[in-house]
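Dear colleagues,

As part of the handover before I leave the project, I'm documenting each prediction I ran so the next person doesn't have to rerun anything. This entry is a single chain, and its sequence is reproduced below.
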Amino acid sequence: MYIDTHAHLTFPDFAADLPEVIKRAREARLEAIINIALDDGAVSRSRELSRDYPDFIYTGAGLHPHEASEWNDNSYKKYRSLAKEQKLIAIGETGLDYHYKLSPIDQQKKVFRAFLQLAQELGLPAVIHSREAARDTIDIIREENKGKLKGVLHCFAGDPDLQRAALDQGLLISFTANITYPKADLIRTAAKETPLDRIMIETDCPFLAPQAFRGQRNEPSYVVKVAEKIAEVKGLTAEEVALATTANARRLFGI
């Protein structure tokens, strides 16, 4: 009934109890989890999870903008091969993050462009990260979209210009549990204004636990709280949001 479209199950936070985490996800009526792997080791571990939990855990792979400096002349070829060999269902996450600027901005832009090009070459959706970089994110998406770009703005933070641009470019918008935070009015407004057939839900776990569990580790079963809050702001039932967002995720990721 629910799909967590962005999780990081290979992070050390889940090393001690991952089977129990997955069991709780199933009990919460999750139909699938998209695991986002951010280095080669994480991709291998994620593919092992896909074999252990077939038709339930799927893998996307990319390079967080914090690590954009790791990109080199061989990276494009490497990720192209990785996508085919490991049967990735998404490219990313990729994008821009100007909050800490852990990699130079020019390098982040270069890598973001490369991943958008690769996603279109492979016909896979791009999982896009944008933090305090809305203007440049918009410009690069528009410039790199050759009419074949599909993807999602993940962990959407509420910027209305970025929201409009993403929808205009045919992208989906994914909300996480920060929508439940008391000061998240911009995010709730964005959810209210985004058409239901363009919304997905995620946890971005282990980060951003819902308000009821704030300060604790997030996990896929909590994606239900995201659906409930979207339902509240849109005047729908949680069941309606669950059905729609699951259909949207299956369509985008081809699962």
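Residues 197 and 247 are 8 Å apart (CA to CA). The chain has one domain: 2-253.

All the best with the project,
I.
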